[in-house]
What does this fold into?
Amino acid sequence: MNPTVPVHVTRIHQVTPMIREFTLAALDAPLQPFSSGSHVIVQLPVEGRIIRNAYSLLNAPYEQHQYQIAVRLQENSRGGSQYLHENIQVGDTLNISAPLNLFSLNSQAQHHVFIAGGIGITPFLSHMKYLLHAGHSFELHYACRDGISNAYEDMLMQLFHDQVHIYSEKTQRRLDIDALLSQQSLGSHVYICGPERLIHAVVDCAQMLGWSKKRVHWEAFSSPAPGVAFDAVLSKSQRRIHVPGDFSLLEALEQEGIEVPNLCRGGVCGQCATSYSQGEVEHLDHYLTVQERSAQLMPCVSRAKQGHCLHLDL
Amino acid sequence: MTVQFNPNENMHDQFHYHNSAKAIARFPFPFPEDQYMYSVNIEPVVSRPDSIFEHWFDVDEHYVTEMNERRLTLQQDPKRCIIMPHMRQASWDFLEMVMLRYAEDYPEHFQLERDGLNWHWVNQPLNIDVHFIFGQADSLPMEPFEFISRQFQGDVALLDQRDGDLFMDTGMITGPADWSLNFDAGMSFKQWHAPVPKLAHNLGVFERALKFLLNIQVGQPYRRLNWTMTINPRMDTSSETYHLWGHERGLVTAENAGELVHLRVELQTMPRLARSNALLFSIRTYLISLNDLTRNPAWAKRLYRVIRDLPEPIAEYKGISEYREPLVQWLSQFDGVDE
It folds into this structure.
């Protein structure tokens, strides 16, 4: 279903004490070209299992020979970022998916307003390099912490001085979302990538100001959050599987050799939607409608509510 | 692979069109069963040697004929080519994809040399030899999309992907099966499919198809076949020229159906355009007279059953109702047992 390509790591650059940039080049076939905003899924062998994390490509889409990703070391995570930080060396091979874009630029926007929180800067780096080439208008608002999550701050200030606004202790500035959105013209679209609370704050503010939903775009870049363990009964194949707390339902199914079509693994693309007949679901996706949720769930992010067992049509 | 191009064909007015034995053998017969019903019949593009599925974009013996038809149609009606300004990147993506694929798959006919952004393109069948700068529109004699589409066998639509939907924002459509680019331009996926019979909508095929198309990845295209019927080997059956071909449906009799009626099959290929994230929707049309088609006894028998039992709304939508009776009568000779 999802063919992977092997790539090798040609360069590792420590961007901040917490963020590492990896440059990836083709091993066999040439890399597929991509559009700005695309991500790839990187497979990481951690403690006897494969963790699949999504990372945005941050280089210019015109660079055909390499992909670049930047990885923030996440504490309290399943170990994927830690593996990349501590185990991966220049010359190592990684397996990645083809690029997929769920955070593309909207062709109808006359002006693009980017809001990044911390490592959420990565897709915007690619967008800005593309827009610079295409000659379109944009501005970036980047909230970060000095010496931790302020990746590429200096480069951004040099390349895009007039379009970039940094919010940090050093700059002594705070992002005023309401003021920022209020001054935009009707042709502006806003894009947010960063922590959930930043996304919510901007989405809510845009709604309050009467912005059409079509002008608001966001990407949550989180891996599936660990939860409580539960069991799932597979009605068609008459099996019962256990889903440990640090496995997503999709990962547990894969571990048992059960293939479910999937792409983004982040609750966005809708590809892995699966029907269920029993059990209460904690829906964590951003795709299914309220009606659809009564009969379908997205196993890449959603889980059973505490004490429930799910019956899946698999 | 060397293709022998048929000389002196024409697909309008007096009609002079011929399918070789090879073309008949490789014709994409679209019916896997004795009945036809709408479905999401999308499959990954996997090469099948010695078939129309060998390459992403099939070039066959009618290439020069069809490019000439296209030139004449555009002369009559320039609105068969519509390019919206925000599709510039997608246009270059499409040009690159066609040149790379044609040069790799048909090196005897097409050659591409690249030195950075300095490209040299040779199209031997159409006597085109140009040096240009990739990405720089004024280095070509016309808009890049129009330039390459005039050399691409099959109709082309570039679909902009936004708001969880696809929009027909650029295209060159000179051989549509009774629709109009000028009418559909700018429409969303559901809007341009609105005329399809209700039963297809009720089956939910458009919701599923759209969801599927939105997630097509770079380098992993999908394809499907669609079909209808056309009287005479006419390439341009667009809404704009209905007055030229609509009445021909009334000419079909149980005697002349084999000669007049043609099965029209579209091979639709849908690759992701990499840098723009637009989706290419290419439509390669194959036309075959029923006289030629029914040389294959299995096809003849199946076609009879499909047409006989075709639900009326589908027959009506495809424009077959008017001559279904004489057609079925003619086809019945190929089915010994009438179940």
